[in-house]
Amino acid sequence: METVEKYHAIKVDTEKCMGCTHCMKTCPTEAIRIREGVANINPDRCVDCGNCLRVCPVDAFYMDHDALDQLQNYKYRVALFSSVMIGQFPEAYSEGSIYEALLKLGFTHIFEVEQPIQLLIDSIREQVDAAESKPLISSFCPAIVRLIRYRYPSLIDNLVLVNAPHDLAAAYALQLLTKEGARREEIGIFYISPCSAKMAAVKRPLGEKESIVDGLINMNDLYSQIMKVISKKEEQDTSCCRDQLTHDGIVWSLPRGEARHFKRKSMAVDGIHNVVKILERMENDDIPELDFLELKSCHQGCAGGILLTGNRFLTVERLQKRAKRYPVTKDCPITNCNVQDLKDKLKINPIQPDYVFALDSDRMKALEKLQKVERILCQLPGIDCAACGAPNCHALAEDMVQGKAKMSDCIFLQNRYLNENKITLARATKNLEKAWGKNRFDADCNKRGGRNEGF
Amino acid sequence: MKMEFDIASGDFKKAGRASSQIKKVLKQLQVDPKIIKRIVVAIYEAEVNIVAHSFGGKLTAHINGNSIEVTLTDNGPGIKDIEQAMQEGFSTASKEVRDMGFGAGMGLPNIRKNTDELNVTSEWGVGTTVWFRNQF
After folding, report:
1. What ipTM did this prediction achieve?
2. Taking CB atoms and an 8 Å limit, are B30 and A285 in contact across chains?
3. Nearest CA to CA, how far is A247 from chain B (Å)?
4. Bond into A194 cis (ω within 30)
5. Interface test with A, best of B27, B34, B106 (most A CBs within 10 A)
6. Model pTM?
């Protein structure tokens, strides 16, 4: 099998990063280490959940994205976004005025991705009905799909094999525009992403080499751009592309948005650390009998997406209100597109596990390493101070057996070795500099960090 | 390698600690996920058995390159009729325990279903030993 290098949306700005430990401590896959005073992400382990961005006090994490001037390369300029985009705007701005502002910014067609959602619901239901081992787990949130591939390989067959709403909407948009007579190369599809995980998933879809979209725009940036041009006056509703938008579509990315279609035989969990707890239980066969499990990495689902500007609870509230104005899906027949073609586009191949937490692919070697980890742990202080540049003592011990760290990286052991005259003071200082960089030991009243920045 | 856990009677909040730790280790050894699942379910059931029915006990796991052996011993009261306890649905659990979602009488049958070799010995008034082995 061809191995494609993992793509990650999240990058570290080494100029801005001050090498604190916030991100490292919150990462659900222990993918971050501090080296030479800056955060270092292990691409094998990162699931692009964006929790590091959330806790960073100096905004050192960023994502590659396209600027609006890219729009000029296309005749048909399509904006694709989840309805949470609309939900973040204060009520003073109407739906019509937000759409109008997007046209002012240069888009020609605007599609909210959760349409025609009925196709997605049908496809998930078919799979749930046919499944031997239940519950099926939603594959909507790309951070969760990655988490399961890495940490819960035994549950991989429970994932629903269906594309995400943005794939559906992109295919739908292409179909409609082609019908209008547009050629593919004239169409520029721009996905406005609510989070880092979707960005990574759109750029490098599971099992596919090419992305369906032509550009990625950060929802945060676009929000600011819209606020510059938006009018507070009530605008005429200009969108022709909301025919298939329904109540069910609008709440899809919110908590229970998917699960509600499976009534009481479903459960919805949001927040990646909560998701971890449920997946652990599911591995023990210790959850009630369910058909469908909705798991979302962000609290309040996509309303809590890392790239949203608005408050997540207000966004949920507004979207629920907005949804009431739209018809429910089953009252809204899909008429204007080739349904079979879209259905085919929803299918994806089985997802493969990725054993990134295995200590070694050779089991005997892995066992040796495991025993070594136990022996090392006897020596470490067990306070998880992270002063070694790893998130906790156990992670440091694992790094050691993989040859990525050494005993003297632990400041407690280092102190012992100094007392026992096993290393010199110069050596000890050098060790600390390896994790924290030079000049970290000088007094500096302007230095960032240590001032409760997280709060 | 050897892993040991004390299991306290009645402490449902901690039931599952041993299975979680062992699960983590098996994943690091890259054992087939389907086999891990069987082992973990068996261990978890056995853990819950000690918490729910016994006066407390101990779990010891031996892991080598191609199998895991788990021994659980408790300090009583013991099982009066093992044959009966192995039947699906047979339970001596109190209403309290059942209300917490345990004690449906699937514990030992589920352990048997998920293990390659199983041996249960018990003496009424003394205690129970559950031993099982799964190949990787």
Report:
1. 0.81
2. no
3. 36
4. no
5. B27
6. 0.90
